[in-house]
Known about the structure:
The chain is an all-alpha fold. Helix content is 72%, strand content 0%. The protein has a domain at 40-161. Helix 2 (40-63) packs antiparallel against helix 3, helix 3 (69-91) packs antiparallel against helix 4 and helix 4 (101-127) runs antiparallel to helix 5.
Amino acid sequence: MSRRRARLSAVSVRRAIPLVVAAAAAGAGCGEPEPEGLTRAQFVQQANAICGRETRALAPLNSRPVRSAAQASERAGQVQRTFEREASELRRLDLEEGKRGDRARDRLADLADRRAGAAADAKQAADRRVQLGYVQGIRSSNAIGREFDSVAASEGLGACVSSSPPSLPRPPSLPRPP
């Protein structure tokens, strides 16, 4: 082989190496893309974990009686924050594109938000010592909770069904404002 031909061969090989490396790297990304987001089973597992955590946070609230407007307000505020956190965490569950759980996740998060809003209404009423407003907030929260439970049950989210406390506590009577 002549020197000129050997030199051309060496130059060609040096130029070809980056092209071969680039082609191999590009080929590694070919084929089926890895799914992004959670599978249905992962969604169920993580949603149940979120609901279970929030259920445990609410459990002590239902075991203590409410004896004053201040206690009613504090309790309603705790319930409100719990449901806000639950809604936020449920929304963060990112499912694979087009999975059935997308709609359920959004619906449950919306219901948790609505429930937090009802608890906020009850808290405001307790702060103003308006018994009827407080009771309406409780009833609204409980009605939304039943809807939340129904959606959760239909999606196989057993821990989410029990995430609804039986009710916001009703104080014996809220004193009238001065």
